[in-house]
Prior knowledge:
The protein contains 12 helices and 13 strands. By secondary structure, the chain is an alpha/beta fold. Helix 1 (16-23) crosses helix 12 (330-341).
Amino acid sequence: MIRKYKVLDLFSGCGGMSLGFEQANFEIVLGIDNWNDALMTFQKNHKNTSILCADLSKIKPSVISEKYKNIDIIIGGPPCQGFSIAGKRIIDDERNKLYKSFVNFVKEIKPKAFVMENVPNIISMGSGIIKNNIIKDFEELGYKVEVKVLNSSLYGVPQNRKRALFVGLKNNQIFDFAKMQTATTLISSKEALSDLPKDSVNDGSENKSLILSNYQKLMRKSFNLIFNHTITNHKEKTINIISMVPDGGNYKNLPKLLQNTRKVNIAWTRLNSNKPSFTIDTGHRHHFHYLYNRVPTVRESARIQSFPDNFIFLGSKTSQYKQVGNAVPPLLAKELAIILKEYL
Ligand SMILES: C[S@@+](CC[C@H](N)C(=O)[O-])C[C@H]1O[C@@H](n2cnc3c(N)ncnc32)[C@H](O)[C@@H]1O
């Protein structure tokens, strides 16, 4: 039997990126994060993986490499707290410590490859100085690094979510993002959500709706139960206002008097049933379902992120929204992982 490539997930959150790698037949050996709720979800859905709740800016990479041998790949998304540079270098200071810890893990473990995910504007920060520094940091460790901003909707995810992905390879190999197959048709929010009920259901209830799209078939597979589908009971005023916004519309569709009732430019936005969703957030509650007068449930948000229905979120509802909204869409990670394997 060919052994599966072993993956260490740093800043793992609930494990969106890990799930994608798992779907591409990698073995996730360990997920590290300092957020217990997300790790509980991670553990529930990655039963054979170890978890470690720790501050990655404090933990020594050697502690991990001594316990977990033969790690082939390191993946992860260190939260970007802004970067500080001195001269032309990213320096070792407070604001850079999470990014630096990712670099230090790569330095210690020397994996065959790494995948680091971040916000798209990391590419343009400091007119590209940050991006060039990141590439340089890893080049000094013997990796060739390619970076690209990918729009998830081109990889089977019903969401226009853009993420910057840095892929580093050893032995002078260069990752070619162009090998990742892009979709010719995009998946709409209706294709993603139309088989989920309008109202709340108890965890574990049967999904009685027919499967209405190929995407729903993929999300449900043989799992026909619904979890994490508790609707938000908005105030009557909120319901009245959002009911005036058409499918795909926003605050501009409201009477002038109501247009400024929320002080953000994304306020009162409805998903467009015929298009992929816009980037879902971690629960700010400004985006509404394309048909119902409420924000999407956790399960609907998970569908938009391409988490299958058997991936169950634990913790409070607020925490669940945050876990979902933080994640790398599993299908995006899977597409990348499939191509990555060709280089290993
Ligand atoms: C963008 S999210 C990662 C999402 C994950 N890659 C996924 O696909 O589900 C970033 C994660 O970094 C974690 N984090 C932030 N600071 C940390 C620290 N000092 N040590 C460990 N984890 C940290 C957060 O708790 C959060 O789960």
